[in-house]
Design goal:
The chain has 16 helices and 14 strands. Strand 1 and strand 2 form a beta hairpin. Helix 13 runs parallel beside helix 15. A 7-stranded mixed β-sheet has the order 4-10-9-8-7-5-6, sandwiched between helices. The protein is an alpha/beta fold. The chain folds into 2 domains: 144 residues, Aspartate Aminotransferase, domain 1 (Alpha-Beta Complex); 239 residues, Type I PLP-dependent aspartate aminotransferase-like (Major domain) (Aspartate Aminotransferase, domain 2).
Length: 406
């Protein structure tokens, strides 16, 4: 049976490298296969997952409303004052006219792309856009042009092609990129793309899942950090990263959101976001707004981690966000043995990425710092990485390492 590019490893990887089980209270230290591990693989940037005020709001939301409320899709019978309040507060926070809530980020942006485009329209997008964007574009029956990651000169060339096609079809142009690219951690060159609006007519859509809550003076994201928030026509983010919850939202001009409310199929034909989640998200957004010390702590940990890794000679690429990649040389087998050594003998749990996500011969360890980590956690990790890197250089994982049964 053909299990696909990831599934082909399932028989040896399942439960350890893939679908691992982290147990215990959500935080930097959790349990993996009966052992305490220092966890750098949590979508919990601001440490809100176990914040006492958040836990209380989640508990009260479940007690007062139950998971069933409201019953039905928003359009039919699933709307509420609290859903609308959350949309209003998100609009104010990211300084857009209106907002639509989405049950899930992946489904939501796919469906939004499908709703925004018809076969006459043309898309220009960054080559490293997330899978949810790529899958949304697969449904697009019109032309699309891709530019190499953050290559503004090539983006301009693709816009020239797109403009010609749009004139022929009578359609419009949508440019899609990300605020922060989740693997490499570098920001999308929003400022560079926005500058092209002087020459070309297009709307800009930005997926800012990793930037929302972490970047900008107030935490409003990569657009705020780069000073171009007003020029982002369609702003998308999830609640799964900084907000440590489920769901997503799109903010834009009022007429765009009004159109999406009546055309985003993943929302029209799906049950409304359950009320306990809405209650909890209102509390999370309140803390994001009113407790800047959470973002400041995140960046204290991020800066210490990234500076420490660079000081030890590690290549962390061009990250300009909390996402911290560590690039090393080695085969897939080397990567498997190294990550096993980190988990079993050093108590460090992080994600590892190999080909085809990165080039052959390259392996990438991906660390996600949070406001819940400590500077001691950073020191322990850097010391462990330094020892593992020395082992790698000496060929330990090719010749001396003994695989541990998983």
């Amino acid at each position: 049976m053909n299990r696909g590019p990831l599934g082909k490893h399932s028989q040896v990887a399942h439960g350890y490298y893939t679908f691992p089980k982290l147990e215990g209270e959500i935080g930097p230290w959790m349990t993996f296969r009966g052992k305490k591990v220092l966890n750098w693989s949590l979508n919990n940037y601001l440490g809100l997952a176990n914040h006492p005020e958040v836990r209380k709001a989640d508990e009260e939301g479940a007690r007062d409303w139950g998971l069933a409320y409201p019953m039905g899709a928003r359009m039919m019978s699933g709307n509420s004052n609290l859903h609308e309040k959350l949309e209003e507060e998100l609009s104010q926070f990211v300084k857009k006219e209106d907002t639509i809530l989405l049950n899930y980020g992946y489904q939501g942006i796919m469906s939004a792309i499908d709703a925004l485009l018809d076969r006459k329209d043309v898309v220009v997008y960054d080559s490293e856009c997330h899978a949810c964007i790529v899958d949304g574009l697969r449904m697009h029956m019109g032309k699309r042009f891709v530019f190499p990651h953050n290559d503004i000169e090539n983006c301009e060339k693709q816009l020239e092609h797109a403009t010609k096609v749009a004139k022929e079809t009578g359609g419009a142009i949508l440019v899609i990129t990300e605020g922060v690219f989740g693997m490499s951690g570098d920001q999308g060159d929003l400022k560079g793309i926005v500058a092209l609006k002087e020459k070309f007519q297009f709307r800009l859509m930005v997926d800012d899942a990793h930037g929302f809550g972490t970047l900008g003076e107030t935490g409003a994201g990569a657009g705020e950090a780069q000073g171009v928030m007003d020029e982002i026509d369609i702003y998308f983010s999830t609640f799964a990263k900084s907000m440590a919850c489920i769901g997503a939202f799109i903010s834009a001009k009022e007429n765009v959101i009004e159109y999406l409310r009546y055309n985003v199929r993943s929302q029209i034909f799906a049950k409304s976001l359950p009320m306990p989640l809405v209650v909890g998200l209102l509390k999370r957004l309140e803390l994001l707004r009113e407790k800047p010390e959470l973002k400041n702590k995140l960046w204290e940990i991020t800066n210490a981690l990234q500076a420490g890794l660079k000081e030890k000679g590690f290549n962390i690429g061009n990250t300009s966000s909390p996402v911290t990649p560590v690039f090393l040389q080695g085969t897939e087998t080397t990567a498997i043995r190294m990550i096993m050594d980190l988990r079993e003998n050093y108590g460090i749990f992080c994600s590892i990425v190999v080909y085809p996500v990165v080039p052959k011969g390259v392996m990438m360890l991906r660390l996600i710092p949070t406001a819940s980590h400590s500077l001691e956690d950073v020191k322990v990790t850097i010391d462990a990485f330094a020892e593992v890197a020395q082992k790698l250089q000496e060929g330990y994982y090719e010749h001396k390492f003994t695989d541990i049964s998983v």
